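Hi U.,

Before I forget, here's the chain from the pilot set. I'm dumping it here mostly so it's searchable later in email.
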Amino acid sequence: ESDYSDIEGATTNVLTMPQLTQADEGMYRVIATNAENSTTSDPASVTVLATPAQSWQETHFPDPFSIEAALDQDPDKDTLTNLLEFTFELNPNQAETDALVHLSLETMDNVLHAVYTFPPLAPAADSQVESEENTTLDPIGWNSLQNGVNGVTILSTTDAYIIKVPVTRSVFNRLRISRD
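Structure:
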């Protein structure tokens, strides 16, 4: 027979559990009691379907629903938000001492390219990673870089996420990370 634990405060005819984690998975049953009788329901299995980001938060934070676990926070004060640390499988509770991106130059087909090398993308990351360019740092006017278009190369391997862009003095590049 399975062990069951009481859910504190669950004494009404409706049970709402809005913040479940994978630790809450298991077998549950209901014991209904009145002054005369008690009856027990058949056991029911509860499975929590967590997104990859939720699983990452559960791994790295004692309370995955806390403010510090939110994807827009930076609890280790290394200027990398939790979303960025999740995307690159970093530890949000340990400040990164190495630069996230390494810049180098490479000549390809007689054209000088700026090479941006990032850590590899997390295999289960549900983030959208997009490389963009603009002629100014204005928040408007950024265009997506496409692999194989205008000399751009974008590689995602188990060792690194690499963007190679032809060097132009009037172009700025950025990596935009978002979640749907």
